[in-house]
Design goal:
The complex is a heterodimer of chains A (117) and B (112).
Chain A: E1 4-7, E2 10-13, E3 19-25, E4 31-37, E5 43-51, E6 54-57, E7 65-67, E8 73-78, E9 87-94, E10 107-108, E11 112-116
Parallel strand pairs in A: 2-11
Antiparallel strand pairs in A: 1-3, 3-8, 4-5, 4-9, 5-6, 7-8, 9-10, 9-11
Chain B: E1 10-14, E2 19-24, E3 32-38, E4 45-51, E5 56-58, E6 62-67, E7 72-77, E8 86-93, E9 100-102, E10 106-111
Parallel strand pairs in B: 1-10
Antiparallel strand pairs in B: 2-7, 3-4, 3-8, 5-6, 6-7, 8-9, 8-10
Classes of the chains: A mainly beta (117), B mainly beta (112).
């Protein structure tokens, strides 16, 4: 059971380049999330999805787009990377709150370390 | 070792001692709390959770205490081991809400 898998693990981009981060989960979770983690700060939610074909904005959505074409995958796209997007990106997933008794335990991947030069 | 006050970003503890990590949460409506452990180069890993109808919950070598009056929770680690060296995050949530709000984290370093 792999859990939550993120690819790639590391990436260096030049300003203006685009890329897609892939998150895959094999736990049949309905909810998926993308966070960024910056030094000295907690995790901040970028976008999330409560089911296949649905996405919604989190706290810091600007400069990012997402897609959830399949239940097990959640993609995060940067159309035109900026140095401010240098960060570590984490994907997480969880069961629907109704099935989990309202408890939002999220399970995280190992992260993607992105540098934008 | 103990981090006192609302929050200290680092905590150094002697191997074998007990550790206490503190966290102040901000939303009085929060009724569910989770502690995560993040080792270097890895993603956050669930440790233990507590609902607001409890003030204490125990796991294996860990105990979480919740004081709703002052909006404070703590994570106690018994007999701290080198493998406990990591960043520890508390997260607060309102039941049936998608959003977890994370604290800035406390870095725990275990001295041999």
């Amino acid at each position: 059971n792999a859990g939550v898998t993120q690819t790639p693990k590391f990436r260096v981009l030049k300003t203006g380049q685009s890329m897609t981060l892939l998150c895959a989960q094999d736990m049949n979770h309905e909810y998926m999330y993308w966070y960024r983690q910056d030094p000295g700060m907690g995790l901040r939610l970028i976008h999330y999805s409560v089911g296949e074909g649905t996405t919604a904005k989190g706290e810091v959505p600007d400069g990012y787009n997402v897609s959830r074409l399949k239940k097990q995958n959640f993609l995060l796209g940067l159309e035109s990377a900026a140095p401010s997007q240098t960060s570590v990106y984490f994907c997480a997933s969880s069961f629907p709150l109704g099935l989990a008794g309202g408890l939002n335990i999220q399970y995280f991947g190992a992260g993607t370390r992105l540098s934008v030069l | 070792g103990e981090s006192v006050g609302l929050h200290l970003p680092t905590l150094s503890v002697q191997e074998g001692d007990n550790s206490i990590i503190n966290c102040a949460y901000s939303n009085s409506a929060s009724d569910y709390f989770i502690w995560y452990k993040q080792e270097s180069g890895k993603g956050p890993q669930f440790i233990i959770d507590i609902r607001s109808n409890m003030d204490k919950r125990q796991g294996q070598r860990v105990t979480v205490l919740l004081n709703k009056t002052v909006k404070h929770l703590s994570l106690q680690i018994a007999a701290t081991q080198p493998g406990d060296s990591a960043v520890y995050f508390c997260a607060e949530n309102i039941s049936n809400d998608y959003k977890l709000s994370f604290g800035a984290g406390t870095t725990v370093t275990v001295r041999a």
